[in-house]
Amino acid sequence: MKYDACYGKQDNMSTDKIALVTGYTGESGKALVKELINNNQFKKIILVGRRKIDYTDNKYIEKTEQREIDFDKIDDYAEAFRGADVHFCCLGTTRGKAGVEGFRRVDFDYVVSVARLAKQEDCKHFHLVSSQGANENSFFLYPQVKGQAEAALTKMSFERLSIYRPAVLMVDRVESRPLESVLRTILSYTVQRIAPEWITTPVDILARAMCFNSFIKDRVGVEILDNHAIFRLSEQQSSSKNDQSKATNEL
Ligand SMILES: NC(=O)c1ccc[n+]([C@@H]2O[C@H](COP(=O)([O-])OP(=O)(O)OC[C@H]3O[C@@H](n4cnc5c(N)ncnc54)[C@H](OP(=O)(O)O)[C@@H]3O)[C@@H](O)[C@H]2O)c1
């Protein structure tokens, strides 16, 4: 099912759910963890990655649990995926960084393995950060691999699978990616000002959308969220936050 925009109501502020994030050391993963922590709707946030982050902020220390794994031996680490109701997968690399095989290994093999273990460990709702243009029949490597990962996950029959297809992620990237950085600079002075939803997605908008979407009730099956839907969900997250702070102020 494809959602052009977002429909649906959120559950009340639920705090008994546990989230798990893979790819949490990356740019969209970091934005998501920040949103999940500040939003406070999850009781706990499990972070699974190939390395740990030395958090100094108490909110992160109290709310998160980091689990380090070797993705090449992922089947030895099934217990790292245990205990989560909702999984957010922000894993990914680039062909430039990892080569063709390395890109396939991370963006297909690791993503599919992570989803398989999440399902095995009874995760009910899996969120995948995929990409605009994902298409398993594409002639080009990037959209093809993204489309293949989406198709493989779709076959896994999660109770709920949310696939996000953001456009160019707008973020001050820590890692140096010169071409991407030039593209982002051009976009931020042109497209982002005129038609922000066309081919750009700020990572905080993606994070807000994913967080809000995990508490929308009465949705099942597979949903594909294009950039327009990501922006709509993010707006709903912002307005629900405003409503909550209004309600708190009125108490
Ligand atoms: N960049 C864009 O404009 C754009 C646009 C649309 C969609 N996307 C997609 O959005 C997703 C997230 O993108 P992003 O820019 O946030 O990614 P990112 O900053 O590059 O972070 C990627 C994450 O994956 C992990 N990872 C990469 N290679 C790994 C490996 N070999 N073994 C284990 N973990 C590995 C990284 O861990 P480390 O920190 O340890 O490296 C990091 O946590 C990706 O799937 C990407 O394709 C990106």
Automatic annotation (TrEMBL):
**NAD(P)-binding domain segment(s):** 25-154
Q: What is this protein called?
A: Protein HTATIP2
* A Pfam family that the UniProt record links to this protein: NAD_binding_10
Its GO CC terms are: cytoplasm
What is said about its interaction partners and assembly? Monomer. Forms homodimers during oxidative stress. Interacts (via N-terminus) with elongation factor EEF1A1 (via middle-region); the interaction is direct and competes with EEF1A1 binding to guanyl-nucleotide exchange factor EEF1B2, thereby inhibiting GDP for GTP exchange and reactivation of EEF1A1. Interacts with nuclear transport receptors XPO4, IPO5/RANBP5, IPO7, IPO9 and KPNB1 as well as GCN1L1/GCN1 and LRPPRC probably through their HEAT repeats. Binds NCOA5/CIA.
Cite the GO molecular-function annotations of the record.
catalytic activity
Per the record, the GO terms for biological process are: import into nucleus
Per its UniProt record, what InterPro entries does this chain match?
NAD(P)-bd_dom (IPR016040), NAD(P)-bd_dom_sf (IPR036291)
